[in-house]
Amino acid sequence: MSTKVWIVTGAGSGMGNRLVHQILARKDKVIATTRNLKDLEEFAANEDAYIMELDVTDTTGNIRGKITEAVKIWGRIDVLVGNAGAAHKILMEDAGCVNPSDFCEEPTKPY
What we know:
Elements: E1 5-8, H1 14-25, E2 29-34, E3 49-53, H2 60-74, E4 79-81, H3 92-95
Parallel strand pairs: 1-2, 1-4, 2-3
């Protein structure tokens, strides 16, 4: 099996962090990104991990610069895991009505 090079956004906690552990257990290489580098200190000494500060809400130009930097580390990226994001816990009853046209041009028709 050939070694893959992964980039994982949102690797500072939760699913992204667990995924980085699994990638390293497979003996693959990983570029783990987060908004706060101290969240990735546990991977700093691992030669198969590269930690990178990245905010996916940054400007397109800055993100392109980070991707260019990432490709230069091992010469390629084989797998991108777009895991960064935030969620707010809320009960459905408190969320209010959602209009499907807010998310797509044509509302989905019920079956």
